[in-house]
Amino acid sequence: MLILLIILVVLMFGSSPIMPYSRDWGYYPSGGLGLIVLVLLVVLLMNGGLHF
Which residues cross the membrane (predicted)? Predict the structure, then answer.
């Protein structure tokens, strides 16, 4: 589950509109990935949190 969270964070940075190749995309990809991260965090917290 932690690997999935790390992959989502990397994808969020890659799709941010400050990168030259994704400037025309706007905030839609990073907003969608942010929503996925938020849902993932809610699911993790409902299951008892992160256990390292």
Answer: 27-46
